[in-house]
Amino acid sequence: MNRVLIGKVSQKGQVVIPIQIRKALGLKKGSKVSFELNNGEITIKKLPTALDWANLVKQIAVEDVNIDENGYFDPKKSPDFHDWMVNG
After folding, report:
1. What separation in angstroms does the CA of 27 have from each of 1, 39, 49?
2. Are 27 and 33 in contact, with CB atoms under 8 Å apart?
3. Which of 9, 42, 48, 83 is the most buried (most CB within 10 A)?
4. On the CB side of 20, how many CA atoms lie within 13 Å of its CA?
5. Where are the domains of the chain?
6. CB–CB of 32/17 below 8 Å?
7. Cβ atoms 31, 23 nearer than 8 A
8. How would you class 45 by CB atoms within 10 Å of its CB: exposed for 0-12, middle for 13-18, buried for 19 or more?
9. pLDDT in tens, 39-72
10. 3-state secondary structure of 1
11. Segment holding 86, helix H or strand E
């Protein structure tokens, strides 16, 4: 969505976010947004919810790694550990 949409500021300083943007971002009643002012331009961003964070954490791979006293691990038991350490 690369088009300009217009909102109007109310007497109380409230702005209605156009429906196309609310739908695209999944904004609902109670959703939180942040405002950033930079060189006369305002950036509005949707803040992640607890559910957003929970879904993100679910995507993190879990692997038990046993490292011995010399700092070595068994790559057969932890096949993804090396790539994770190198690539983050």
Report:
1. 16, 26, 11
2. yes
3. 48
4. 7
5. 1-47, 49-88
6. no
7. no
8. exposed
9. 999 999 999 888 888 888 887 767 788 888 988 8
10. coil
11. helix 81-87
- Both structure tokens of 47: 């803040």
Q: What is the 3-state secondary structure (H, E, C) of 20-83?
A: HHHHHHCCCCCCCEEEEEECCEEEEEECCCHHHHHHHHHCCCCCCCCECCCCCECCCCCCCHHH
pTM of the model: 0.54
Residue given tokens 């879990």 in the structure block? 62
18 to 8, 60, 83: CA distances (angstroms) = 10, 34, 44
